[in-house]
Design brief:
The complex is a heterohexamer, with three copies of chain A (113 residues) and three copies of chain B (446 residues).
Chain A (H helix, E strand, L loop, with lengths): L1 E7 L4 H10 L5 E9 L5 E5 L2 E5 L2 E10 L1 H15 L7 E7 L2 E4 L6 H5 L1
Antiparallel strand pairs in A: 1-5, 1-6, 2-5, 3-4
Helix pairs in contact in A: 1-2
Chain B lengths: L1 H29 L5 H29 L6 H28 L24 H22 L6 H24 L3 H4 L8 H19 L20 H18 L11 H29 L4 H16 L7 H24 L8 H19 L18 H31 L6 H6 L1 H6 L14
Classes of the chains: A alpha+beta (113), B mainly alpha (446).
The structure holds adenosine-5'-diphosphate (3 copies).
């Protein structure tokens, strides 16, 4: 099993969710993060002071999947979030040795979906 | 001698009489009495302050009902349109509305120079009261066009409506224009202020198109939840509070207090009835007592009672409020069905209920309370009702045409709507380069 | 000839005299004077608007002191109870409170038909002022029962208290009932409004039981922090502001201004003293100057000065406020010890200080300022104090019995409390299907 | 016989005349008139309530413009300084300001005992109005010294300024002191309230040093964004609303309404003009219409019109507002350049515009409107202008010296500033042990 | 060492914390997330529009433990959060090759607790 | 590749960011968390009730780096956040088998920086 972590643009979340559902990936965990990447940020001025925001708002997805779902999931995320512009985001894939469903106590592959 | 004595006697009597008379007057001087015009001015000013304060109410309601990422933008619009209205109404608006002219437009008193007061109070007081009304009409539109209208476009619009469009209509009805001559009656502005604001918002929001994500591909609506209900709720209370200046203040004098008291009770009852009616309706229709709708209902009741407040009895005020509360829900649902996206309900609250209130005067108004004709339900037949209908229709037509033109021209020249990207990121960053809630972690996504 | 001349002379003098006299009068007409009843009505109305605005204050304080997940719920309660109070007090309440009847209950003027004003101002103005008071009594309870009371139960309760319970007590004291006849004095409602609200909240909160997680298994309390202190702070300022209508407005006339001025200064001093006293107390007891307590202290001072405000000197107002400020802290600590969970401090602020204010009149009140008897400290002995004690006890007893019965019946029929699950998820979602701060990331957990 | 007849005739005429005359008077009695002092008292009280409500405005503006982690702290300061000002002004302040004494200080009426009113209204009303002013001066400072000043130090400071410093200056100008004798004129307090508050804030903020992170190592400023713009925006509306009590209320009487109306229109126009001017300036200079600056501009306009509001024409009010709006931006930029850290702009808004408003009176003031000399632009030469300059300079000098001393002593004894650690974690936790937004997820980091 | 990640119902956090303390697991990191799982969400109506919320508020726990603590930790989490109803949550277990305590520079097993 | 996760004191973030930039680590993801560790928390009193806050506000950094950057990154974090007092925080290092840049589809080492 793998744990797929993706950082995407917040306003792309609806598209990514749609793409994931089409790929039959229905379970995920979403959170708010601030990202520092290639994207330069934007400047705000507040009370006459120009300041550069280099921590940009991003959304982080965590999706645990079985091996055979890794590629479809990654493809779906890319399909939903890619614009070709800097700031599109990143996907990290970790090994996930174990997974447990609290409700039933099921483990591993049965538990993940 | 006799006549001499008589002379003296008469002189004495006359003198004593004179003394007693003037001492009576003098006594009156000692516990010196307040001047009526002074008290009236005081009242008009206090009412003007309350109406001014409604600006805060509008701001908070509009901000609370939209998303956090556009809050600073709507507040800037709301703040600056009052500033623009003040200056625009000072330069041109007052002259157009209350200056001598023809039945269609006033043409005297630019920059208040040589302008005359439209009431018995000094012009400064009368102007301030009227300017606050003008600001209200302008700001109603901000809500309907929220979350996607360009800031620069908004500034231009708000100057134009408060310097020209609103005053022209005001002249027709309150400035002795053609509708006034027909006995069209709108005591405190269901038509002049609210229908104008509401229908300007309708034109604007149709031209602007819905916000991204408001409608699904099949045309069914998505809910885009307001981000700060306590703020909106505070705003509604402030509006209700300010309405006690809006309606009773429109008497422009205190008199023996009877009229202002009647207006105040009617205002309050209509608001309360509207709130309850809307809550019950939304509860029955959608299974949950939605606060945002109940509050819209109270505002609807307030808008509806604005025209008839001086001429109806309390029970009629309750009824007018109830209808207003139901109407507002119907309006929201209808707009959604027609694919019109009005984030804060400006059209149902101010537009629809502006019409309803104006017409209601033709139904429940009473001659004994000062109206030209009895309303339909008091045996006055359809006379007043039809006049009211004619008036509100003409006004709406004028608003739709003139504001449609203005919005169209703005659209072609500098553009009405921000870019898709800016809309998604939020207008706070895009237009003002600042966040409303810096440091708070807020989901930008729907 | 002489008499002819004389005649002419006399006629001339008389004529001139008449002219001068009437021109004097006419001059008086020209700078025409304001009618006293008009000014009084104006004042009562403005005061009513301010008292109405307190509703916003209550809403913000209550919302700010509870958790974010129940905010929309408390605001809906607060909003609708004013609507319900308006309608309930219109239909039944006024007749019971001010209608002719017996010493216990008024029975005339249902729906205001044939009702008479309880003051020299028009009934519409008087009604509005009284209705705003009624709304205040109803909404106090919302705070004490916050975060767990069913919405439908609340609506029923709020109609009943404002249409029946509050008016009955009001009749006893302000409607010429048995307590009024005993010279029991409560100038602006320490007992009528605050003790009633506070003790209704006490009964309710005991019947409801504490919120989940408020007390540990050993009975010691956990802190459940309020989610929005700025909102609460704004609410306190609004309340303080509104209190300037509540107390001085209860004069129901302006007169030469002396009385309203005295009441205003007393109101302000008691609030300030209460705030400082509470802050010092909480600082000494718990090591930190807790704003929520200092604000409760100011409210306590306001509640306490409400009964005696017209009859005491400024220094006494300061003293009454200080005691109120200390009392409120003691009350909060005591309630915690007894396992009663009152999230916003409704009982200590309104209940305890309602009693204290009522009794304080028996201590500091002065005959020269219009009270029936001098207070204890002015050599009047215990007469007034005992009357005050009797009055407030009877009222509290009546409230506890009647409200206890009402809450019990509601509990048995439709239920007072939401389910455990709903409470944990928050009443905003459970009861209203909407969030107060959509988009914000908020920890639901304690 | 003839004379007999004549007598009767004359008697009859006289009698009839008398009757008609007295019946006229009697008629006047029946629709009894309002007492002038009663109405004046009413007005002063209402104005006092509005000025009191500004306290909420200050609180919300200051809270909104700083970071979430210090919000509870600033609100506590703001809340308690009004309490402290009420008590301090009651005990000492009023006696110093309005008591008989010499040109420098008043010395009679401690605890209001034996104190006399400074106007025709009862002392209680006059005191309340003045106390609310005093509270405003005290709270201005909180904003400038926000986010790093110790709470206990603040309490001491706020008692001292309201019991002693502010009253002394008040005595010079409004209490018949040496500046009053020179015809120095400050109608509603550009100098007395705003310059005092603003320059006390300047001294304080210089002594306190900037917040951690405000300036880079090269001295260039970082932006530290305000955490709640809607709150700040509400606060500005409340202030504007309250200013309608501040300026027009300073008439202390209603009269025929002309003066209060003129002041009200001037106040409104200056605010609107200031808002627009500031927005345009900031837009041109930094490319974005920054709401926080536009709001500061409106406040600047209000501060600037405060001194001249009674003595200038509307167009001059617009001009004064425009200059104020530009000035405030210049001030903010300058302070940043000089490394002074004033989080909410207290110095540019209240300090700089306090000076500007005071001087403007010497430029635009008119003799026909009641000023001692015509202003420069009305051909009065520099007389009034120089008097104004002298007055405001003396006041500022006095403030800088006295407040500098007070802050220095506080610094040496109990310390002015919290520890670095406390500042980083936030004063809410450090000083009050509670959070402002419990449950909300907020980034503490810059 | 393992990094245990659990997504639980927010209102179960107090119970889970208690269970973990009983199991002598005192260190953890908690954050707010939105979860999309088997649980259907609930419907909200807002201004007459019914909309289905399918991102539900969840709490995410991250706990780094030594091998011998893995089972007790997992058991404690389950004990505290299980109700048997859909939405109870999931536990993911990752390998944790290294851990450093910033204060002391300690590494590995000493650093973790 | 490794995924470095660090929990630090919120008010140390500016220092850590500066240290990371000096070490030429420019990309990272930041989020808000609550931490339960050796640090005892502080007591708040609210309305007369003393309560112990044992979930403290922390900031979580996630940084994906190539092997040769692991040590410099860890050093930079420690340099920026260490005060020697309890509560300084922890660093966890996970294996990161795969990384994808959404914009370009690049994978692995090229994608990470
Ligand atoms: N090495 C990394 N470690 C942790 N997070 C990263 C890393 N690289 C990128 N991110 C996250 O991904 C987001 C997008 O990165 P960015 O460099 O803007 O993408 P791209 O290179 O595709 O334009 C960043 O804001 C950050 O949150
Ligand atoms: N495959 C997954 N990947 C990421 N997060 C998941 C996954 N499955 C479940 N979750 C998280 O766990 C939470 C609970 O899952 P849910 O399916 O409701 O539990 P259960 O299946 O026990 O009822 C979800 O809301 C989500 O945050
Ligand atoms: N075993 C762990 N699992 C998860 N998070 C931890 C663990 N140990 C520490 N943390 C996180 O690191 C933060 C700092 O830990 P702490 O024990 O206070 O540091 P130190 O031991 O250096 O004083 C905690 O608040 C918590 O968020």
């Amino acid at each position: 099993m793998k744990l797929i972590i993706a950082m995407i643009q917040p306003h792309k979340l609806p598209d990514v969710k749609r793409a994931l559902f089409q790929a039959e990936v229905h379970k995920m965990t979403v959170s708010n993060v601030l990202g520092c990447g290639q994207q330069r940020g934007y400047t705000e001025t507040y009370r006459g002071v120009i300041h550069e925001i280099n921590l940009l708002k991003k959304v982080k997805l965590e999706i645990a999947v079985n091996e055979e779902f890794v590629q479809p999931t990654v493809d779906a995320i890319i399909r939903g979030s890619k614009t070709g512009k800097i700031g599109d985001g990143k996907i990290f894939i970790l090994d996930l040795p174990e997974c447990i469903r609290i409700r039933t106590g099921e483990k591993g592959q049965q538990a993940i979906g | 001698m006799k006549t001499g004595l008589l002379k003296i006697a008469v002189a004495t009597v006359v003198f004593l009489l004179f003394m007693s008379c003037s001492s009576m007057l003098h006594a009156g001087d000692e516990t010196s009495h307040a001047s009526a015009v002074g008290v009236d001015t005081l009242w008009v000013l206090i009412a003007a302050f309350l109406v001014f304060f409604m600006q805060a109410g509008f701001g908070m309601v509009e901000a609370g009902f939209i998303r956090a990422k556009n809050t600073c933008n709507i507040l800037t619009k709301n703040f600056l349109d009052f500033c623009m209205a003040s200056i625009g109404f000072f330069m041109f608006g007052y002259a157009i509305m209350f200056g001598a002219g023809n039945g269609f437009i006033g043409l005297k008193g630019w920059f208040l120079i040589g302008a005359e007061s439209g009431a018995d109070v000094p012009i400064s007081a009368f102007w301030l009261f009227q300017a606050a009304f003008c600001g209200a009409a302008a700001t109603i539109v901000a809500g309907g066009m929220a979350e996607r209208m360009k800031f620069s476009a908004y500034l231009i619009y708000s100057f134009l409506i408060s310097a020209f469009i609103y005053p022209v209509i005001g002249h027709w009805i309150w400035g002795g224009g053609w509708l006034a001559k027909l006995n069209f009656t709108d005591f405190a502005g269901s038509t002049v202020v609210h229908a104008v604001g509401g229908f300007a918002a309708l034109v604007g929001t149709i031209l602007l198109k819905p916000r991204i994500g408001k409608f699904k591909q099949d045309g069914s609506p998505n809910a885009i939840a307001g981000h700060n209900i306590p703020l909106a709720s505070l705003g509604v209370f402030i509006l209700w509070f300010g309405w006690f200046g809006f309606n009773p203040g429109s008497t422009l004098s205190v008199g023996d207090g009877n009229l202002i008291a009647r207006i105040a009770i009617n205002t309050n009852l209509a608001a309360a009835a509207g709130g309850i009616a809307a809550m019950i309706t939304v509860w029955r229709m959608f299974g949950k007592p939605d606060l945002s709708m109940a509050m819209n209902g109270a505002l609807a009741g307030l808008v509806a009672i604005t025209a008839p407040c001086a001429f109806v009895e309390p029970w009629a005020a309750v009824l007018i409020g109830v209808v207003g509360g139901v109407l507002v829900i119907a309006g929201v649902v209808l707009l959604d069905r027609f694919g019109v996206d009005d984030p804060v309900g400006a059209v149902p609250v101010h537009g629809l209920n502006g019409i309803w209130g104006t017409l209601a005067l033709g139904l429940f108004g009473q001659k004994t309370l000062g109206l030209a004709n009895n309303g339909l339900f008091y045996g006055g037949g359809f006379t007043q009702f039809l006049i009211q209908g004619l008036g509100v229709c003409s006004v709406i037509l004028f608003v739709i045409l003139s504001m449609g033109l203005i919005f169209k021209i703005i659209d072609i020249t500098i553009g009405l709507r921000v870019s898709r990207d800016e809309e998604l990121k939020g207008l706070d960053i895009g237009e003002h380069g600042m966040e409303s809630y810096s440091g708070f972690q807020i989901f930008l996504t729907e």
